[in-house]
Amino acid sequence: MNILVVEDEKKVASFIQRGLEEEGFTVEIAVNGEEGSEKAESNHYDLILLDIMLPKKDGLTVLKELRAKEINTPVLCLTAKDSVEDIVAGLDSGSDDYLTKPFAFAELLARVKALVRRGAQDRGAEVFFADLRLDPVTHKVWRGEKEIDLTTKEYGLLEYFMRNPNQVLTRAMIAEHVWDYTFDSFTNIIDVYVNYLRKKVDKDHSKKLIHTIRGVGYVLKED
Ligand code: CA
């Protein structure tokens, strides 16, 4: 498992590198945004840990450019800025998860393992619901004939919905299954993701599939 760490703070970078290498990961470091882009575009990584505040090119720009080039490697953003706006901007740019500095290594490791494991689960038969079709091998999703372009996290969320249709999924269940951990302040992020997913899955269709159960959570159903 190959991980790219884009981080300009030497102490933080070597702390992450040392910890992940002890866990058996191979780690490469890029010390600024430009180097991060170059490495991410020319090598294969299973995961990218991306600092937001970087010299030469900031992390969100790096992320947007990667996604625009259809490089869909899972990205975990590291940020010292913990305001909701920044986090939401990160998610909107195609980040799969984020961690606010300073963080405990155990927490970083849990998220790294969750993202890498999700990437490795890419197998199995196609899943169908209503006119949705999901291919777990290629991570492609269609509604009717039209392919829907999803980020890794949106895909994970939709897959969870499609494997549990007609069941009310609480935010806690979604956090645990899609993000692999529980986190109190996480509920806003889940709502943000469900809204992204809705825009892509339901917006252009009169028949909505993702429904809100007020105060409880969400359900994928036909009416
Ligand atoms: Ca930094």
Describe this protein's structure.
It is a single chain. The chain has 223 residues and is of the alpha/beta class. The chain is built from eight helices and twelve strands. The chain has two domains: 2-121, Response regulator (Rossmann fold), CATH 3.40.50.2300; 127-220, Arc Repressor Mutant, subunit A. It has helices at residues 10-22, 33-42, 59-68, 84-92, 105-120, 152-163, 171-178, 187-201; strands spanning 2-6, 26-30, 47-51, 75-79, 97-100, 127-129, 132-135, 140-143, 146-148, 169-170, 210-213, 217-220. It has a five-stranded parallel β-sheet with strand order 2-1-3-4-5, with helices on both faces. α2 packs parallel to α3. The protein starts with a strand and ends with a strand.
| Average pLDDT rating | 87
Total helix count? 8
The shape, in one word, is globular
Q: Which ligands appear in the coordinates?
A: calcium ion
Task: Give a quick summary of the entry.
The chain is of the alpha/beta class and 223 residues long.
